[in-house]
Amino acid sequence: NAGVMQNPRHLVRRRGQEARLRCSPMKGHSHVYWYRQLPEEGLKFMVYLQKENIIDESGMPKERFSAEFPKEGPSILRIQQVVRGDSAAYFCASSPRDRADEQYFGPGTRLTVT
Amino acid sequence: KQEVTQIPAALSVPEGENLVLNCSFTDSAIYNLQWFRQDPGKGLTSLLLIQSSQREQTSGRLNASLDKSSGRSTLYIAASQPGDSATYLCAVKNNDMRFGAGTRLTVKP
Q: In this model, does residue B45 exceed pLDDT 90?
């Protein structure tokens, strides 16, 4: 059973470009969480999704950021018009149901904005 | 394989009490340990992050300690308030992040 997959592992974007981060949950998991980790800081929750439904987006910046988890395919975290402050590690986690204690984390995508 | 255990599973205290939550892990080769809070229906909120080279971190009424050699961490909450009621999770990071099952805290007014 493969773990949570994230790709790409490293992404470099110039200011103003778009970044798309993908997360494939573990098999059988229908809940996906996205977190951001700024340098030297802990994980900060961004958004919690079920398939085709956003459950909690209280941690998402109001502009430029969006997330989706379609019926088929991976969850996508999209950042439009990236700025240097978006440089961070973005982690995805999945769980089989609404149990944060059963979250399994992916390896993360490290985004660098130049 | 890293296993993370949290004791107690549930805790109920009257408002104003100081309390300690415990976390133990089996593999001491960790990069860091985090304490999270989860409110019902919400994602996780990171409370404190302790790097493997550190022994404790403090934020307001919260203090977390780390004893890597014994595989233990504690979260101390001073002067508890009803708003502290939530599930508290610890997570350790090796190659990935593993969570404990959490302690469900209820602070009664």
A: no
